[in-house]
């Protein structure tokens, strides 16, 4: 029997930069998905989840289109592992999780990474963590059918306690960055709006297509290649919407690096301002926030947060805020009151921190 688990993640900053070869800075969350796997000499994997009434039976030679729903993430991992020529044992697997689904906290990557870790441990396959992330991404892109980047899997695999992971997606380089706001009297608050999202729908793919069109028009393979030229280069993008999308990506990359610099100085006031600027860019240029998320971000800053931003793919999910520790209750109450007064459901407010990665 093998037990393996992988965490959800919060992206501190660097949204929709991953598929543009840019920078992002996620942390692994304390919330995890755990897998218990009992290998057997059979050619199917039967999977039970504490979140589903019925188990799913997956043939090991599964192919895209065969399994849908949550089981597709598991089947996708099997399919991607085998596609890489790696052995996959059959057996039974039971899954439990406290990573909320559809909140932008990467419940899908947590599931992929936990399943992959369990299967690889059972077969004895040595797969380095970057390759594990790619296998998880392939499962999601080509089996589940969501064209997401590599951010979520890398965050789940490389997370460490009190540490954020700076990722440079151009060469998939991963650097640990000390992140312990609590030691400086600052809390990282997570507001789950309760507004659910799904990436398989068209908006994510549309944003990605806009960025790719902008890069193509500028004659480069990715927007990262014009990063050093500054936003003026975007005068060369004819479609104003594509140009705005690309502006978000270029300015967001800049903010990730500025955020890392602010952390090095333990300057959480500066870090907070970068959160707020990132949110504005996602609201105005990338247009992936919602009125509901804007209200959470704005009301937390009005109540004393150093800064706040939506985190994740967008169109729902969570907002994070850096808040002086003595103001956490006040900010939480003020956000709840503002959100309820506007007719939205009450957000769930929690204090989070950087936790361990998959293992
Ligand atoms: C989702 C995707 C990631 C990334 C983020 C936005 O979480 O799965 O690959 O693109 O959105 O930063």
From TrEMBL:
GO MF: galactokinase activity
Entry's EC annotation: 2.7.1.6
Annotated GHMP kinase C-terminal domain residues: 260-334
Secretion signal span: none
Keywords: ATP-binding, Carbohydrate metabolism, Galactose metabolism, Kinase, Nucleotide-binding, Transferase
Sequence ranges assigned to domain GHMP kinase N-terminal in this UniProt record: 73-159
Pfam families per UniProt: GalKase_gal_bdg, GHMP_kinases_C, GHMP_kinases_N
Domain Galactokinase N-terminal: residue ranges: 3-38
Family per record: Belongs to the GHMP kinase family. GalK subfamily.
NCBIfam families cross-referenced by the UniProt entry: gal_kin, PRK00555.1
The protein, known as: Galactokinase
Organism: [Mycobacterium] crassicus
Biological classification of the source: Bacteria, Bacillati, Actinomycetota, Actinomycetes, Mycobacteriales
């Amino acid at each position: 029997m093998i037990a393996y688990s992988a965490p959800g993640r919060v992206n501190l900053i660097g949204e929709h930069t991953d598929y543009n070869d840019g920078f992002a800075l996620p942390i692994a969350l304390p919330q995890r998905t755990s897998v218990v796997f009992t290998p057997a000499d059979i050619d199917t994997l039967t999977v039970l989840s504490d979140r589903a009434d019925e188990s799913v039976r997956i043939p090991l030679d599964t192919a895209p289109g065969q399994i849908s729903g949550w089981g597709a993430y598991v089947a996708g991992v099997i399919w991607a592992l085998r596609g890489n020529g790696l052995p996959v044992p059959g057996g039974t697997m039971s899954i439990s999780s406290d990573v909320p689904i559809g909140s932008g906290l990467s419940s899908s990557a947590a599931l992929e990474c936990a399943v992959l870790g369990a299967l690889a441990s059972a077969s004895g396959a040595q797969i380095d963590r970057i390759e594990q992330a790619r296998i998880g991404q392939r499962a999601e892109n080509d089996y589940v059918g969501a064209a997401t980047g590599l951010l979520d899997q890398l965050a789940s695999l490389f997370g460490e306690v009190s540490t954020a992971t700076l990722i440079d997606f151009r060469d998939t380089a991963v650097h640990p960055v000390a992140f312990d706001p609590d030691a400086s009297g600052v809390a990282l608050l997570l507001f789950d709006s309760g507004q659910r999202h799904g990436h398989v729908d068209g908006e994510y793919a549309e944003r990605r297509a806009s960025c790719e069109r902008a890069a193509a028009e500028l004659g480069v393979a990715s927007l990262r290649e014009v990063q050093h030229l500054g936003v003026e280069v975007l005068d060369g993008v004819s479609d104003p919407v594509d140009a705005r999308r690309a502006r978000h990506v270029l300015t967001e990359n800049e903010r990730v690096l500025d955020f890392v610099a602010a952390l090095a100085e333990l300057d959480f006031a500066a870090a907070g301002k970068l959160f707020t600027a990132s949110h504005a860019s996602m609201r105005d240029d990338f247009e992936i926030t919602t009125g509901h998320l804007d209200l959470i971000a704005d009301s937390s800053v009005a109540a004393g947060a150093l800064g706040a931003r939506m985190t994740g793919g967008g169109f729902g999910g969570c907002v994070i805020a850096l808040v002086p520790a003595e103001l956490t209750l006040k900010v939480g109450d003020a956000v709840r009151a503002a959100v309820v007064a506007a007719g939205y459901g009450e957000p769930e407010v929690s204090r989070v921190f950087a936790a361990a990665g998959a293992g």
